[in-house]
Amino acid sequence: MLAIVGGSGLTQLSSLEVVRREVARTPYGEPSGALTFGRLCGGNVIFLARHGYGHTIPPHRVNYRANLWALKTAGAKNIVSVASVGGIRSDCAPGVLVAPDQILDYTWGRANTFFDGIDVPVRYIDFTRPYDEDLRRRILAAAHEVGEAVVDGAVYATTQGPRLETAAEIDRYERDGADVVGMTGMPEAALARELELPYAAINVVANYAAGREASTQGIRFERIEEVLQAAMLRVREVLACLCRQ
Ligand code: HPA
To answer: Atom 9 (ligand 1): residue with closest C-alpha?
Structure first.
């Protein structure tokens, strides 16, 4: 079963035929909200709003461990993350969809492993390729089928937030190799790997990153809303096609 973790702009999946909602408890506490089980274009799907259904949980307070544990326990076999980002690379303009293939992690203080605690043996995971390549390919194929262009491959820099970045920080991330910047990619991707859940992402560029192009003088939040609203309609098409595959 496919699980979709929706970020800003995707707190619900309107095309989902909801079958039931389930409040899950985990050894790590409560997930961001009830798991929504439903059917999307004939496929079974679990949906979870990363920031809560009322969009009240900031990126650094999301209980990533509880979210992934609950999804795995509920039977998820693949996780698709939908998350908005700022665009650093010039082809990552507002409204563009991106399937990232690498991650940089600048977050701190987040519970970022399940292998933690006095009774828990230390375990390391291979994270050379943080996204599952088969799932990433399936996303790209679904997008192609519905005629949506998606940038194939980008380095996603995860920042702590919740504030947006300074222009100098964006310059630094670019020097480090980042193409897009967001606040929730980590530790979500690493925790999914620890649970051996294939994980991939569809990023929606909401704005040019700080100091770039139209964001040279600052970021306009009214514009972000508009961009996300329009782009999420296209993301829903891609997700629906992914479920039909
Ligand atoms: N920076 C970090 N996260 C984001 C941005 C950004 O500019 N836009 C949307 N999510």
So the answer is: 85
